[in-house]
Every structure is written in C-alpha cells, then in structure tokens.
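For consistency, the fold was encoded as tokens, as this record shows:
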Amino acid sequence: MIRSEIAEFLNDHFTLLAKCVEAEGGTIDKFIGDALMAFWGAPTEQTDTAQRACRAALAMAEVLEEDNALRQEDGLPPVRIRIGIHTGPVVVGNIGAPGRINYTIVGDTVNTCQRLESLGGKLEWEGAAAILISGATASRLEGHFSTEPVGIFEVKGKSEKVEAFRLLSA
C-alpha cells in the first residue's frame, strides 16, 4: 500500500469504529497509530458506562465482520482488532502544556485497558474482534451480557493481578 492508500484505509476504518462509540454516548479521546481510545462517563455523567462500552465493542465487532465480507469480495485480507475494557477511577479534563492542551483521560484504569487489549493478542480467538473486559467491568454488566472467563493475569505496571473475561454477546 502506498501512503495515501494507508491513510484512506485508516480513515475509513476509524469512521466505522467511531460511529459505534458515538452511538453509545462515548467520547473519542484520540487515535494513536492504528488504535482508537475512547471513554464513557465524561463530559456527561453516565451511570451505565460499562454496559455502553460493551455494546460499542460488540457493535465494532459486528461492523468489522460486515466490512471484512466486503473486503473479501475485493480480494483483500480481513481486518482484526483487539479491544480492552476496564472500569475504574480516572482523571478527565484539559491536560497538557500551554499551546498543547487536550481534553483527555489519564490514570491506572486507562493503563489496564491497554494491558487487556494487549493480552488479546496472546489469546486465540475467532472473528474480527477479540474483546477482553476486566472483572471490574464484568461485575457491572448485571447479567445483560454473555462473558467467558479467560483467567487471572499478571500485567505490566500493576501489583495486583487482573481477572479477564471474553465478551461474547449482549
């Protein structure tokens, strides 16, 4: 792929995923390389952030499956993504240096999400998306979603192990 094709692919890809986040009232924090970072609960308070994030993740998997079917018709390889979801305390606000302030989210919860996303690359999975959620997130789903325990893992930067679940369906 040439640079303009890569940029066009990423823009199309992010458009598909961003619609899923926005449909669930999420805030897109930033695009980092080929990754999208989003959060719920700010700037507008939401009491069901875990459920919203999980619905968005499942919608991303679905829209990506549909897009992969079109890619296959064009002889292109499928796109696969990993998603990590964790629920916990964060700091949200305008953060940065003068002239370079961004509305963003920081904290250990953000780091745990990234660790879960990374863990998805070490596990076998089928389909377009590997969606891993933490035990903290799973405990807030109130039986509205189907999950499967994956295990308890040591993750970089955390003294406590993280319990992970595969998010299967709503």
In short: The longest helix spans residues 49-73. The first strand starts at residue 27 and ends at 32.
